[in-house]
Write a structure and sequence with these properties.
Length: 696
Amino acid sequence: MVSLIIGFVSISNAQDFSELFKKGKESYNLAKFNDAKNYFSKGLSIPRLNDKKSSKLYYWYAKSMYNNSRIDYILSIKFLDSAIMLDPDYKEAYFLRARIRQFESGIDKYVIKDFKMASGLSSIFLKDIYIKCISIYYLYGKERAFKKIEGIINEKFYTNPKSTIIPKTQSGLDLLSECNYAYASIYALLNNNELALSNLNQSIIQGFNDFEFLNIDFYNLRNDDKFLSFLKGRNLDIWFQSNNNKIVFINRMITKFVENKINNWQKKGKYEKVSDYQNRVNDEARLQKIEYYTQKAIDSIGISLLRFDLITNEYDADNESFKISFPDYNPIFLKVPLNEAQSFDANFNDFEFSNIKFTLLDNYDLEIMHLEIINSTSKKTYIYDSQDIVSFSSNQFAFNFDDIKVNLNDLTQAPTKQISNQTTKIINVGKSDVDTEIPINYITNKNTFALIIGNEDYTKYQTDLNSESNVDFAKNDAEVFAKYIEKTLGVPKENITLLTDAISSQMQREIEKLSKLTKYTEGKATIIFYFAGHGFPDEITKESYIMPVDISGSDVKYGIKLNDLYAKLTEFPSEKIFVILDACFSGAGRNHSLLAARSVRIKPKVDVVSGNLLIFTSSSGVQSSLPYSNKQHGMFTYFLLKKLKETKGDITLEKLSDYVIKEVQINAIKINSKEQNPNIIVSPDVSNLWMDWKLK
């Protein structure tokens, strides 16, 4: 047990424990973690506290310390040791200790033991569901965790809300809200931002308000603008440090480290002569030491934030280089000869990383400057240095590497000499001409609703596919089209839903939502549905499907059938419905088929449509929908956006389609040496009307 806490302040016995604990929690909830630490430490100095109260204070002190500085995580764990020693049944302490250890160092036998203890001590009642389900996730994986949550919902609360297993003080809705929060946390840990946000929102609507672990659960989403806006709108953004706090934090850490080192260095040695001391300690030597220890401090912070368990790599065979991605850092690019690449990749998880050095950028982000990677099998060492120029092509982007100067002149008590000429690799991906200076329309079309989907990465859920089966630039297609919908066509942001790399359940849910919007707008709605990604035909029926990223070409029936999509969108009366598809339905793709073994293309059945529906497709028959690589878009989407930009959206569908069809036909031959003929499909109900329609 840790028996001494630095900063204890003697207080009067009249100061009540519960008052200090209340103030500590208030400070914690306002992200004033240092103040919270002081209150909890004062509480621990009160004589003759019972074990459980002391245990609770150790727990909150540890949590405040960890949130104040992740570098102090080892000390935080020691205080959690004390909490558990005083209360061996303290499930929250076991759980937090496991979370911190796993987050900072990865899974080991101690983490497993703590998660088992936390799970075993938890029931299926309020405030225990979350701990039990997250523990199961770390112990056994997402399937077991999801199955547990579903079992709790279906067996205990949802189908039998009057079940006697629920205490009278708890409602089924409370328990359901915690189940949804557990869902949200697991999706966040899986980097599924959309489902994390959706379930988090649902849990809050149902009344969930216990966010003690939000900062750990949703750490991966902390830079997601949509997530941060969501938190801010619900006064939950206090959990994530602002940029200013980051600067203060890093300055404080570096200053403290350098001061301690310099103070020790400046002391005269017990057996050191005065003349030797004067030669050793001088202004020039001091500046050199400050610079040396500043770099040591930066390296120490950088290493403490590295997540070695989450490193990934991607290989570019043409340039014989690996892109190695670290969470929270820009990727590094390393030359590895083609004949060594397979061994490098096969042993990647067992590599030793050594001599890691960092630089501090002007915005106080850390950047890897140097590291050495040792292949434990071949015993070969690969050296990364930020000054090396390494070519790497990913999705045909052009990467340029610029010099970055580092300035630490804000250090308050130990100013350092400016560190300059430290080169780091920054990826500057040049934007297309249609991605910038997007025209703005100040007229709001409040009855227009848009669902925009860009499915690019099909390998994330389908590990039997290679990267060639992904749809180059589909995300960029969707994201930029969404900006035109909002800025140029005047559709309110809240009327636009943007999905990237969407799974089947997400797509089905949002299509259903779009249908209901038409139902409740009394025939006044204009609907825009846009999809960039893989299309695929059913080999037997020849019917066309658009494919979620988690559905294989061999299971096409689980995709979104176009005829079902059209039926859903026209289920209720509306003004106009536009379906825009940058996808082909022959079984091919921009690069490669969604089905690895497929070589034969299928001519899809021509859809028969009805209602106020117009469909604009990027290709016809057995053709592929091709990319325009230099513009980082699909060929079809690029010329669609180009004309919208030129006309500020004020163009009829007839003129827009004429332009896009002509430009795609010509440029597909010129650039890709293949034919591509976009096509307009119009419902007979509007065959004499659609030419004068406008998206705007």
